[in-house]
Amino acid sequence: MALSGSVMGFVLSFAVVTIATYVSTSVLTSGSSIGYSIFTAGLTSLVWFGVTYLVSGTIGVSGYWVALGPLLAVVAYFLTVDLLYEGSLVRAVGISAGTWSVTFAILFAAAYMGYSSFQALGVPPGIVAG
């Protein structure tokens, strides 16, 4: 039962981030598609996890340096979005902020109605839950 719950959580979380990415890119870019939003959500999730794990998990920073992993992950997240969508780094930050805002709204509504916890895969947790 725990594995199926984890798989369901992953799928729903991924769907929320994909929808949020699609909405954000629809507003801020001329060419937005659900397929490319799925790709973006997956890649940014991997980048976020990979950088955070590499810096905080593998290198094993501690003390004040523990914030280095998430900080570098946010920078890598912005750079990944910048590579995927044409425009400037400012547009990438806008797309990311839009994605986080839409994700926040969806998760807040779902948590308010008692349907989910207040977190999503591929969106920096401190930003959504904070």
From TrEMBL:
Protein name (Swiss-Prot/TrEMBL): Yip1 domain-containing protein
List the keywords (alphabetical): Membrane, Transmembrane, Transmembrane helix
Q: Which domain of life is it from?
A: Archaea
Q: Which organism is it from?
A: Haloarcula nitratireducens
Q: Which residue ranges does UniProt annotate as crossing the membrane? A: 6-24, 36-56, 62-85, 92-115
